[in-house]
Design brief:
This protein is mainly α. The chain is built from 41 helices and 13 strands.
């Protein structure tokens, strides 16, 4: 303090200087800031006529040593504070530190306020931290030390808030926030945040705002538009407080106009402890309302497109990205600016601004809760009011009646307040949607220019959201949604024409798949206007991209009760060029079933085998026994065998083990003597190479074409053992000589062990069935049925004998739309131990050993290194009993690589649909009872309408199974990104359709009939039938998908 300055002015300058040095604050300087801040507050208390509490340990007690209640002077609310010119000049020189101190004081709550103190607050705990930095909280609690708040300290803080506001902001007497633009802006910002009729400070702020805007007092150095509204500088400054320092600093750094905000706030804090958190929602709502209602942008600012305008847009978009208040705030901020900007010098920025407007409107419509009437509030105590007295209370009858009436009155007051708040919330949402629809209607064509210029890809996310809103909106807002759809229709038709010049090179077919479920939903909506919009979009947009889907939807809408809807749909149905889609014939694979236990069926397969053997023998001029061996070596393909022999005959015969047989003069005759031996040598003896009997005669021996002779007894034992060992042994048996590869055929078995020939023929027949691609054995237990696919088609098949369902290609469970190779790879991945470990375990954060959690506690101790950690977030714990909580989402970060994460992603969804399939199977078992109940109760319905429910349950089961295996198919396309994107778009559309049908089928029909009548019940059953048909067609078209065009 100097002779030329007053104590208050010196303290205000000291606070500003401390704040400017906050980047270099150490413990000593931090203590200096806290001490100086409270000296300023003490000085403000003194000039306002309050008795300051210096030593809180002593001042909290009265003369009797008891805790008291702080009482201000009698004329406190009327007395003007003694603010001198030196204090005003000190703040005008800087004032940033003083402004932050006042913000901390006004936003600080000693303890969570009650609803009576702050009724607009949704969560009372939010006020204890919202808008204040850790440094500011340390200042406010500096004098409290280790003690808790009491009535005396809370009362003192309450009146000190009023004193600070009176010193800083006033229109009736001198105050420190006046004299220049920054001072007036700070005063107005404080008033906007605190204005309320529920507190002393709120009343003061209200009075200031009323006087300020009633008189339209100009700010010193303020731009012209600030006279009666909110300037861009003030709007940006307020949005910085709404977002908090951490979110807003990144935006401020990108703009040159940040100095205008920094003139009010001071330097940007880089220390996390000095960064302000976002304002509480209740205060933010006031700020957003003030900006949206009062924002005024000068014409020169709009035309010149100043950086300050860009800063405001970026801050407003950030409010949307933070998902604050479901997007209502952001759309209000953007809409207020949108209404004032029509032209701009920078056309690129204007287009970008319009894109931001559309994105904001889209997010607002997508993020808002489903529109409905205000929910009826219940009469219940919220924990703060008086509880209704019970009969057992020890009070007399009159007092009990009075107390109960008083309690009831309080409950009714709370009930009315609750209805008012919900009504306000509904009004805010109503206004936000109204603004969003207007922006989309007016700026829809801006996307058309961007797409035609190649700057943006055509997507249907906007009409998808609008259709959803049009279906769910109430009567008042539905026409606006329909109007927005109508305004977009011409733009999208033009964009499709422009982007559809090269269908195979565009992504239209992939993108339109996401629109189809929305059009289907709109096709059975109660509103004729929504159904007409669906018919128009189908005729003018969908027809240009996906004609089969457009024809299917139009067939349903052509029978609509509304004449306009039916006429629009019939224009497609009656088009001669589209008649080819009229009869939908599902691709059916025709299978034949042959039972090997039936002699006639067995003879059919045997005849096919003998024909192929004869073909090979004739073309190659070899014995039939050799032809049989060669045919089996080439998997039953006579053509492959003949072609291979034409290229390398000797090599094929040698590899198949029939070379000697084919070169012998009489190869089909078994020899009981040496080849070319005379009759005189028939009684010669020789040594058997198996039993080493040296007295074996030629008549007791047998020799194959290879010339190796063994005794008949050993031959019979050899062949008998091979037959008993199974088909793999006898069908691949060769000469007993270790160095000979000549194969044993039916000739040898017929001569030596004729009783084993029938069994050998069965082995040959089964081998042929296994090898032939047109034949498949049924995998059912003890089933002898062979399924024949005459055309070689692969698909699901159900055995006509045991009713076992399986895939004809791999004999596993049906897995459409996944390929057999993908399904086989999937089973290997899912069955591998490495994947099980990745799926069901997490690595120890210290040593990395996999750990499986087999109990409920989330406190884990590694058995390898005794490291304690949290199972959910993997954070280190000091001990196993250490208190710890976390709500961090675990996105399987323990996966080693992207491929591992992809496996986890697809298996999770596979099992989710597998569980849904089990649920659908259970529902299908009880559907007959549901149909019978429907027929008994609603006699007005026919059997065909009731059977639609059965068909829906069957379709749901098929769709769940289809979707389950579709994730195997998608994983099989992991290396083909383009093909996978097309597949996933149709997969997503099918999922939406399936979920909708599931919701329709689970709806309580009794309640529907009671609440909405017979017409809506019939419409509901019609929608179920339509969805079942659509889903069946969609599964068929995904199975036959052409990945070049994106459609069948």
């Amino acid at each position: 303090c100097t002779p030329k300055t007053t104590p208050l002015a010196a303290l205000l300058k000291a606070v500003d200087q401390c704040y400017r040095r906050q980047e270099d604050l150490n413990e000593a300087s931090r203590l200096e800031l806290q001490t100086t801040s409270w000296l300023v507050l003490d000085a403000i208390a003194i000039v306002s006529g309050l008795k300051p509490m210096i030593d809180w340990d002593m001042d909290c007690y009265n003369e009797e040593g008891r805790l008291g209640v702080y009482e201000p002077p009698p004329n406190f609310s009327e007395a003007a504070p003694l603010v001198d010119e030196d204090a005003i000049d000190a703040v005008n020189d800087d004032g940033a530190g003083v402004f932050h101190l006042m913000l901390d004081m006004m936003l600080f709550w000693p303890s969570p306020p009650s609803r009576r103190q702050w009724p607009q607050m949704n969560n009372r705990e939010e006020a204890t931290s919202g808008g204040i930095s850790l440094q500011g909280r340390g200042i406010m609690t500096f004098r409290l030390k280790e003690r808790s708040w009491n009535d005396m300290t809370r009362g003192y803080i309450r009146f000190l808030k009023a004193a600070c506001f009176n010193v800083c902001v006033s229109k009736k007497h001198p105050c420190i926030f006046q004299g220049d633009y920054n001072g007036e802006a700070r005063a107005l910002m404080l008033s906007v945040m605190l204005a309320s009729g529920n507190s002393m400070v709120g009343t003061q702020a209200n009075d200031y705002l009323n006087v300020h805007f009633a008189n339209s007092q100009p700010m010193f150095g303020a731009p012209k538009e600030a006279l009666s509204g909110c300037s861009l500088t003030m709007a940006c400054s307020l949005l910085v407080l709404v977002l908090g320092d951490e979110a807003s600093n990144a935006i401020l750094d990108k703009h040159s106009s940040q100095h205008q905000c920094l003139n009010i706030f001071g330097p940007q804090p880089s220390d996390i402890s000095a960064m302000r958190t976002p304002l509480p929602p209740s205060i933010s709502a006031k700020v957003i309302e003030f900006i949206s209602n009062r924002l005024v942008v000068s014409e020169s600012c709009v035309v010149s497109n100043t950086d300050e305008l860009k800063l405001y847009v970026d801050l407003a978009v950030m409010v949307q990205r933070k998902h604050l208040n479901d997007g209502i705030w952001s759309i209000r901020l953007i809409y207020g600016l949108y209404k004032q900007i029509e032209v701009a010098r920078d056309k690129a920025w204007l287009d970008d601004f319009h894109s931001n407007c559309i994105a904001c409107a889209k997010d607002t419509l997508a993020g808002l809760p489903e529109p409905a009437h205000v929910a009826r509030a219940t009469l219940m105590d919220d924990g703060e009011g008086q509880v209704l007295p019970q009969e057992g209370d020890q009070i007399n009858r009159v007092e009990r009646i009075i107390a109960r009436r008083r309690a009831e009155n309080e409950l009714f007051v709370k009930h009315r307040n609750l209805l008012r708040k919900k009504r306000l919330r509904f009004d805010d949402a109503f206004a936000a949607r109204e603004n969003a629809y207007e922006i989309i209607s007016n700026l829809g064509r801006s996307r058309e220019r961007n797409i035609q210029d190649g700057e943006e890809e055509l997507t249907f996310d906007l009409p998808i959201i609008l259709f959803k809103c049009a279906i769910q909106e109430d009567t008042m807002m539905k026409p606006r949604a329909i109007s927005a759809l109508s305004s977009l229709l011409a733009a999208f038709e033009s964009m499709v024409d422009h982007a559809g010049g090269d269908p195979k090179g565009s992504s239209l077919q992939r993108q339109v798949a996401y629109l189809i479920p929305s059009l289907v939903d709109a096709s059975y909506c109660e509103s004729e206007a929504v159904r007409l919009a669906s018919a128009q979009w189908t005729a003018q947009v969908l027809l240009l991209i996906d004609a089969p889907a457009a024809y299917c939807l139009s067939c349903f809408l052509s029978n609509d009760t509304d004449a306009k809807v039916a006429a629009t749909a019939k224009s497609i149905v009656n088009n001669p060029e589209l008649q080819k889609y009229q009869d939908h014939v599902k691709h059916q694979i025709v299978y034949e079933f042959l039972d090997l236990s039936n002699a006639n069926d067995c003879a059919t397969i045997t005849m096919e085998l003998e024909v192929r053997i004869a073909t090979v023998a004739k073309d190659l001029d070899i014995p039939t026994s050799a032809a049989s061996v060669i045919l089996s070596s080439f998997d039953g393909s006579s053509k492959a065998a003949i072609d291979a022999c034409k290229v390398d005959r000797d090599g094929v015969l040698r590899r198949c083990g029939v070379k000697a047989r084919c070169e012998t003069v009489s190869p089909n005759i078994g020899l009981r003597r040496d080849i070319g031996a005379d009759d005189d040598n028939m009684n010669d003896y020789f040594l058997c190479g198996i039993c080493y009997d040296d007295e074996v005669t030629s008549t007791d021996s047998y020799v194959m074409a290879c010339g190796h002779r063994f005794c008949i007894r050993c031959w019979k034992a050899f062949l008998g053992n091979k037959v008993e060992e199974g088909p793999s042994q006898i069908l691949n048996a060769s000469c007993p000589n270790q160095k000979c590869d000549e194969r044993v055929t039916g000739v040898e078995l017929n001569e030596l062990v004729p009783h084993q020939v029938p069994k050998w023929k069965q082995f040959i027949l089964r081998q042929f069935v296994d090898q032939e691609s047109h034949y498949r054995f049924c995998p059912g237990p003890d089933c002898e049925v062979v399924v024949v696919s005459p055309l070689g088609d692969i698909g699901p098949v159900e055995c006509n004998s045991c009713e076992t369902s399986f895939c004809f290609g791999c004999r596993q469970e049906p897995h459409v739309p996944a390929q057999c190779s993908d399904f086989e790879r999937w089973q290997k991945i899912f069955g591998s131990s490495e994947f099980w470990v990745a799926k069901h375990s997490k690595p120890c954060p210290q040593c990395g050993v996999p750990i499986e959690k087999n109990q409920g506690c989330n406190h884990i101790q590694c058995s390898q290194c005794q490291f304690d950690f949290c199972w959910i977030c993997l954070a280190h714990l000091e001990s196993h009993n250490m208190a710890h909580s976390c709500n961090r989402y675990d996105p399987a970060d323990h996966a080693e690589d992207d491929d591992e994460k992809m496996k986890l992603f697809y298996t999770d969804r596979f099992h989710a649909h597998e569980e849904a399939e089990l649920f659908a199977r259970k529902r299908l078992k009880s559907v007959d009872d549901k149909v019978q109940h429907l027929l008994d109760k609603f006699w007005l319905l026919g059997v065909e309408e009731a059977q639609d429910i059965v068909k829906a349950e069957e379709t749901l089961l098929q769709a769940r199974r289809f979707l389950k295996f579709s994730y195997i198919a998608a994983y099989g396309m992991k290396n083909n990104r383009g093909r996978r994107k097309i597949f996933e778009s149709h997969q997503g559309a099918l999922e939406l359709l399936t979920e909708t049908l599931s919701g329709l089928s689970e709806l309580d029909l009794d309640s529907l009939y009671v609440d909405r009548g017979e017409s809506n019940l019939r419409l509901h059953l019609r929608a179920i039938c339509f969805y079942s048909s659509v889903i069946e067609r969609y599964m068929e078209r995904i199975t036959n998908l052409d990945y070049q065009d994106g459609i069948p």
